[in-house]
Amino acid sequence: MSFEQAITENQEIREAVGIQAELEKNFFETEPYKAFNRRLNAVMEARDKRLKIGLLEQKGGALIAPSGVGKSRMIDKAIADFHSVAEATGGREFGHQIVSVIVPGRATPKETAAEILRTLGYPVKNARDEDYFFNRIKDLLKHQRIAGLHLDEVQDAGRHTTDAAKEHFTKRFRNLTQNKEWPVCLFLSATLEARELINHDKTLLRRLRPIEIHPISLETDGENLREAMGTLLRQCGIVDQSGLIANDEFIQILMHAAAYRFGLAIEITIEALGEAILDGARTLDLDHFAGAYFIRTNNDDDLNPFMTQHWRGIDTTRVMDRLNSQQAEARKKGHRKK
């Protein structure tokens, strides 16, 4: 490849990834998102009302789903929308801000508390003990008028090998919802592994009323997915001339390729559009989805759901999968059908 060709290829890639980045800004509301958004709004508004009449114990919410569903983005969106609404309506007497913290991998209560303090702008010194950390959290929540605390990736709060350890972790954060000085609402988001932790603490479970996101299906999510795909195509000026979006089997294949997770189905669609743009195509076809899937997984073509009639039998959670386990590379190098 000549230097001029390399520049041209780089420009084409920059254009394609730039369009993909713009498409990724889209947020498509699903039923689980709407349910959690209502829950968050209800809990936060109830806190203000309850504190006005002297009721200290607060509630919260939890969003539980496999990775790739988009739960963190759902919660970020719900929090941002609540902030906007609260600010546009004069704020709330007892505060309305919700702080989000990602729980460090295999974190203890003390390590999680340290991460919360960093997020709140407090300099952390590891020599301090756990009680000190949680007392500072309570002080800062009140001082900064924080009304809600969101812990993301709670499944990573490991080291819960005993019932006593689980109880210790959940009690620490549950107590923040009933602090006499400044109780806050607690929101959790996590993968399915966190169900054991939440179920262990019946008091916490009662206060959270968790929402679990189930696998998508043609019947429950097909129309929403089709509308989202249509929006993405219109935004980048590409046409679905072959009628893929209207085809029920194609939508089922896409859902299967995405392991029945809405967020991943959108990701694959955006990546397929990127493939179309790189090809200089103005119409979207099945080959673009096949190419996008190969780039994501590096699987053999026969294990690409967009390239075989036997797509239902493919485990789409696996990458670098080979028909022959002794192979080191994809058997067909991802060449798409023509």
Strand and helix layout:
Blueprint lengths: L2 H21 L7 H22 L7 E5 L6 H18 L8 E6 L6 H11 L10 H14 L2 E7 L10 H12 L10 E6 L4 H6 L1 H7 L2 E2 L5 H19 L11 H10 L4 H18 L6 H12 L41
Parallel strand pairs: 1-4, 1-5, 2-3, 3-4
Concise synopsis of the structure shown:
The chain is an alpha/beta fold and 338 residues long.
Gross CATH architecture of the largest domain: 3-Layer(aba) Sandwich
Q: What pattern of helices and strands is seen along the backbone?
A: HHEHEHHEHEHHEHHHH
Specify the number of helices: 12
Radius of gyration: 24 Å
- What is the overall silhouette? elongated
Q: In which order are the strands of the major sheet placed?
A: 2-3-4-1-5
User: What structural class do helix, strand and pairing data support?
Assistant: alpha/beta
Number of strands: 5
Can you walk me through this structure?
- The protein has helices at residues 3-23, 31-52, 71-88, 109-119, 130-143, 163-174, 195-200, 202-208, 218-236, 248-257, 262-279, 286-297, and strands spanning 60-64, 97-102, 146-152, 185-190, 211-212.
- The longest helix has 22 residues, at 31-52.
- Helix 6 (163-174) links the parallel strand 3 (146-152) and strand 4 (185-190).
- With 338 residues, it is of the alpha/beta class.
- The model has no long low-confidence stretch (mean pLDDT 91).
- It has a five-stranded parallel beta sheet, with helices on both faces.
- Helix 2 packs across helix 3 and helix 9 crosses helix 10 (248-257).
- The chain has twelve helices and five strands.
